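Quick note —
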Amino acid sequence: MSWPKLKNKYSEGYDERRGIQSQELIEKLQGRRPFWVHGVSVGEVQALIPVIRAARASGYSGPTVISTTTETGKDMAIRLGEGLFDHHIYYPWDKKEFVKRAILSLDPWAFATAETELWPNMLWELKDASIPAFLVNGRISDRTWNRLEGTVRKKIGATFYDLFTEIFLREKRDLERLRSIGVSAEKLNVLGDTKTDALLSRKDPAARDRWTQKFGSCWDKIFIAGSTHPGEEERVIRAFEILRKRYPATKLILAPRHPERADEVLAIARQKFSAGLLSSDRFDQDITVVDKIGVLFELYGTAVSAFVGGSFADKGGQNILEPVSWGIPVQYGPHMEDFAEASDEFIGLGIATQVKDAEGLGDAWIRMMQASGYDNGEKFRKISAGYFERCSGSSLKTWERIYQYH
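Predicted structure written out below.
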């Protein structure tokens, strides 16, 4: 893509994307070397904010700069981390002159990026400048793994990953994959999922209760389908049809992964049921389609059960930890590769069900209604509390490893 086209696509932060920092930022740093964290968009930012929070809680008072590629990533950073970091910038395009310019002007003491991000020019320039680089909440998704097929690709992949000073991985499977292609074993650490800590810090029962009151329904009559992708909404609505035949008082909250699809999803929902947008502030419809960013997590807490998208569609699955953190049982389709270990554990604990199709989802929802009640809800809440007690703390462990290089 040419630079004029990039400028048109990214109307905000064009200078920063070319590595040029504002005089305001330079003056704000006053020659102090910042901790630079980078998250491409919403998901990566959610993985990084807990690490910054752990740093502040540990007494770190140095400057912290967070960069994102997307404007929605910036919005999420401000929403979740305002007061924790000192400045937001847009990430430079991965061209040598841009990243070198950004590194020279910021002069960070450390750089951390999240999850699956691999920017070769940035990593090479950081290494040349003797600045430690870290991959936080790292995961090697099936798609990434498939791209590493073949001897040559594995060798190239290992070369890129070895540019990191240390790699902090979510699951043992991720470590085994990187070790198998030749990444230096001493760089690899399984520290867990930093988003686990983020979920616990974000839980707001009062906000959840306000949504429940708006829907005017006791908690065991709301079902939710979160982070759905194209093609999944039809199957979810089919499952809801099956549920409604047995339990006509139930309601469905339908939250597409990308809220800009809300009108499209609303049209699909209205083919079968009365439906409206969440922003309309009308809650008497059979189906409510979420058209706002940042409310899905609270809405999960209102439901008797939750379907998590990206799982009928071959997308690796969206975050099943979010509903489970509220003690809400989850269902999902055949594709949950990105949360494979959590999926296996949740199924074993009895708080998750993997289904093949819409009919399977509808049947699972009926079983949830048949078992709903205080005792069953308390069972799920205890399962959730036990799991998160075991799995929290990744953010602090990550920060402690990074801070050794300060």
